[in-house]
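Researcher: Let's do a round of design. I'm pasting the structure tokens now; please hold your answer until I've finished.
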């Protein structure tokens, strides 16, 4: 056909293909070539060839990957920061407060209370701790009062026993003196 003389045999074959795009290289660049004949009133007048370079697409793809990676990294770091703040504020700090209160109770300061207003498990732990600590303080105070009361009763009973022992010894001495006196009288009686 006329106007096809300057086409390479591969290009002529491409014109016969049902699809229009073929990958190729042009000036050491990867391109897509669109080649089609120009037909007017049934006559082929020539052909049209369009080269489209993938260099711009590759550059835009690399740019999109960099943007996506940066955005993804920023989102991951932001989420990690938010999780850190959330865990610190709502888990770690309240747990540390409870641990410190437990150590205070362990050191002997019964009745220690924590102020954690929360509707989750940590808040429930704080309430249970407060109740337990108050109960231990109450029980310890009751035990201390009982010990003081019993000590006072024992002291009083001990004092009474001492008084009784003293009185018995005094009476015993008095009896011994009378007995000795009576023996002396009996021995000195004229018979």
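Researcher: That's everything. Go ahead.
Model: Designed sequence:
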């Amino acid at each position: 056909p006329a106007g096809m003389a300057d086409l390479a045999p591969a290009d002529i074959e491409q014109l016969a293909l049902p699809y229009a795009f073929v990958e190729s290289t042009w000036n050491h660049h990867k391109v897509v070539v669109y080649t089609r004949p120009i037909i007017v009133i049934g006559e082929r007048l020539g052909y049209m060839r369009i080269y489209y370079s993938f260099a711009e697409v590759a550059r835009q793809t690399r740019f999109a990957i960099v943007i996506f990676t940066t955005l993804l990294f920023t989102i991951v770091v932001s989420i990690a920061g938010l999780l850190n703040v959330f865990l610190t504020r709502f888990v770690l700090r309240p747990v540390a407060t409870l641990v410190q209160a437990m150590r205070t109770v362990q050191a002997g300061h019964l009745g220690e209370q924590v102020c954690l207003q929360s509707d989750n498990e940590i808040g429930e732990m704080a309430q249970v701790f407060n109740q337990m600590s108050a109960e231990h303080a109450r029980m310890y105070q009751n035990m201390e009062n009982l010990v003081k009361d019993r000590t006072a009763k024992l002291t009083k009973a001990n004092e009474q026993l001492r008084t009784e022992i003293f009185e018995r010894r005094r009476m015993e001495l008095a009896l011994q003196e009378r007995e000795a006196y009576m023996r002396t009288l009996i021995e000195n009686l004229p018979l």
